[in-house]
């Protein structure tokens, strides 16, 4: 049986003790949810050599290889390093970052993969008052559930309508899943309250009657899921794509400065008030 101090040491390296208290599952890290074919082949080799020949996917798009014996752990670490594989992802720090496929998805409004990779390079594994999760999605479909992360980034496209160009083809109406558009006297009427800023109307319009007024991302703070659920609060504006990383920088600086040990962002917001938290962030951005 693995002793407590050894468990803690190995957990910090991404080796999580299994229920039998004798084996680990080692967590290999993706880049924005992606592995190269070579990386997958190398993980397979480790699973075959040191595990039981299979692996599993985690909810944060990483790969775990179970049934690693304690006496083999150092060998796995050395071989993983030689093969260029990263492992880790636990503790009071920035957890593995998650992104949807918005870069190649036809619904994507932002380059989710590039944003996630840049944030990963800057922040993955950085110490924080408590665990901190970052998620990036390209649109309102929210496939990677951005607003239940401590920091969530959601691609948005705000439409602007030019009724003089509208030819009444109804393509935008047919593609609006929120029913925010209707045709009145052969012109589009827009219900902003129903719109989720997905940008579908902009993408399908062939007459240049709908264009992007704003395009970028809405950023949420304070989301969490699990033992305590909380939907993140929006910072209340659309940030341009090239502003996203710098906004996250300000959020991280503020969280590290104001958070007490053991507090996730949601707990900081509960303690000081979400209005103050958001106002302070926006003031630092401005």
Question: What do you see in this structure?
Answer:
The protein is an alpha+beta fold and 286 residues long. It folds into two domains: 4-82, Alpha-Beta Plaits; 98-158 and 194-199 and 214-285, Sulfite Reductase Hemoprotein, domain 1. Helices cover 31% and strands 22% of the residues. The protein contains nine helices and eleven strands. The protein starts with a helix and ends with a helix. The model has no long low-confidence stretch (mean pLDDT 95). This is Dissimilatory sulfite reductase (Desulfoviridin) alpha/beta subunit.
Strand content: 15-25%
Output the helix-strand order: HEEHEEHEHEEHEEHEEHHH
Unreliable stretches (pLDDT < 50, length at least 5) are none
How many strand segments?
Answer: 11
| Largest beta sheet: strand ordering | 5-6-7-10-11
- For the report, how would you describe the main beta sheet? 5 strands, mixed
CATH superfamily of the largest domain: Sulfite Reductase Hemoprotein, domain 1
Can you count the helices? 9
How much helical structure, as a percent, in the residues? Answer: 25-40%
Distance between the termini: 54 Å
Protein name: Dissimilatory sulfite reductase (Desulfoviridin) alpha/beta subunit
Keywords: 4Fe-4S, Heme, Iron, Iron-sulfur, Metal-binding, Oxidoreductase
Domain 4Fe-4S ferredoxin-type: 157-185, 186-215
InterPro entries: 4Fe4S_Fe-S-bd, NiRdtase/SiRdtase_haem-b_fer, Nit/Sulf_reduc_fer-like_dom_sf, NO2/SO3_Rdtase_4Fe4S_dom, NO2/SO3_Rdtase_4Fe4S_prot, NO2/SO3_Rdtase_4Fe4S_sf, NO2/SO3_Rdtase_FeS/sirohaem_BS
